[in-house]
Specification:
Largest sheet: 7 strands, antiparallel
CATH class: Alpha Beta
Structural class: alpha+beta
CATH topology: Alpha-Beta Plaits
Strand content: 25-35%
CATH architecture: 2-Layer Sandwich
Order of helices and strands: EEEHEEHHEE
Radius of gyration: 14 Å
Length: 137
């Protein structure tokens, strides 16, 4: 995708993958889950490849709607931004076995998690004004 996102705290990330689940519901997702981490013992590129293997796991969780995979190529910090149908769905994922596995394969103390209510897309950080085409290939 080679798009850059600037988060509310000023951190910059390159979006390298995006997936959306289409549903028959017209309801907008009500929650956002943001996780940041630095993988332990692997390169950024190896983690990007590994992330393909985990897609089916979280896509099977109730309420999953959308995810952006992001990385800061300079620092090696990774970020996932998920949209969930309900706040409870996001909280369930935040405390899931999948998140414990991710935490265990990350550098100690590098993992941060946030669950936010969307409030009419207020916190949906990927609105067009927030995404810029990256200058890097």
């Amino acid at each position: 995708m080679n798009r850059e996102i600037v988060m509310e705290d000023g951190a910059r990330f390159r979006i390298f993958r995006h997936v959306t689940i289409r549903t028959s519901s017209s309801d907008e997702p009500q929650a956002v889950f943001i996780v940041r981490f630095r993988p332990a013992h692997v390169t950024v590129q190896a983690n990007i490849r590994f992330s393909l293997l985990t897609m089916m796991i979280f896509m099977g969780f109730r309420g999953f709607r959308e995810k952006f995979w992001c990385v800061n190529d300079e620092t090696g910090l990774c970020q996932g931004v998920y949209a969930w149908q309900t706040l409870q769905d996001a909280q369930n994922y935040a405390s899931s076995v999948a998140m414990r596995v991710m935490t265990n394969r990350s550098e100690p103390d590098s993992v941060t998690l946030k669950v936010l209510e969307q409030e009419r897309r207020k916190y949906w950080l990927f609105q067009p004004a927030q995404i810029q085409e990256s200058a890097t290939p």
